[in-house]
């Protein structure tokens, strides 16, 4: 069976009684019909790929309309499967769950090294006690914020190990925002106003956000601002 999105062969999980398969590229999970509840079926999977470079929060609707079931080749339809927007086969009733959603439900994370969309530098992974880490560029301080990292202010203020501030960090992206490529999905981002006041670039596929360096450091708090002046 091949992943409808990536056309990569799905890896069958033997420990999940061969009722679940995972795409090694985007982590989309195929759950065969008749399996246990979705959350339990995803939690039983043990062969998640170590990284998920093309995992998405939702499937591209225009493309998904033409996808066929990887098991019986019938058409797929969008369905809310236990509050998760998934695709369901109209024939065998198996379900395809987007990679990011599937991994989060299963409690699986993948820390990857992202390249800053502005500088192409490898971003630093900053630990946030009790929460998901955030990714920060060591050159321009642009900060990547995943869709499920929690509250933006809490994450940035709790992040540990910020790189030294350097000249050239941006307060806003301006007209460049439409040229920024998502470091995870590699699709172009869109201008977004986080919380109604933070100018950011947001990926339409994974909903991750890139926060300008100066803005990110300002939100991080007084300790970071003092670092700028050293």
Element order: H for helix, E for strand: EEEHHEEEHEEEHEEEHH
- Biggest sheet features: 6 strands, antiparallel
Rg, Cα atoms, Å: 19 Å
Hey, roughly how much beta strand do the residues contain?
15-25%
Number of helices: 6
Give start-end ranges of low-pLDDT stretches.
222-230
Number of strands: 12
Instruction: Summarize the amount of helix as a percent range.
Output: 10-25%
**Span of the ends, CA to CA:** 57 Å
Determine the structural class based on helices, strands and strand pairing. alpha+beta
**Basic shape:** elongated
Please characterize this protein's 3D structure.
With 230 residues, the chain is an alpha+beta fold. Helix content is 18%, strand content 22%. It contains 6 helices and 12 strands. The chain has a 6-stranded antiparallel sheet with strand order 1-2-3-6-5-4. Strands 7-8-9-12-11-10 form a 6-stranded antiparallel sheet. α4 packs across α5 (213-220). The protein starts with 10 loop residues before the first strand and ends with a helix. The model is unreliable at 222-230 (pLDDT under 50).
Helices and strands in order:
Blueprint: E1 11-12, E2 20-22, E3 29-31, H1 38-43, H2 61-64, E4 76-81, E5 84-89, E6 95-97, H3 99-106, E7 124-128, E8 131-136, E9 143-145, H4 152-158, E10 190-194, E11 198-202, E12 209-211, H5 213-220, H6 222-229
Antiparallel strand pairs: 1-2, 2-3, 3-6, 4-5, 5-6, 7-8, 8-9, 9-12, 10-11, 11-12
Helix pairs in contact: 4-5
